[in-house]
Specification:
70% of the residues lie in helices and 0% in strands.
Length: 103
Amino acid sequence: MVQPKDIVLVVSLGFLIYDLACDWDAYTLCPKPIHKWLVVSYLMIAGWRVMVVIASHISHTATREVLVNLRHENSKSRMLVSFTWLAVPFIAAWSVLGSIWTW
């Protein structure tokens, strides 16, 4: 079930992306593509949350418990949870890259 906090998250990330798009040309002076890094970061956060909500809805598991249960009865839920956990190294590497760029 979609909770109010999910709506707030999506609206907030949408506003951040919109605000970034409005000032896109201002980032051309940056030596690294921070604006692109930010957009991908925002999309990863939104995608992560969408995957968790969908897996929770499919498996009828509480949203806060869906990622810790790796033995879902539904194969679609198992696939979504596995993909979510497989994305962790990419998200970590992306965060390190952005941290290096902003240093």
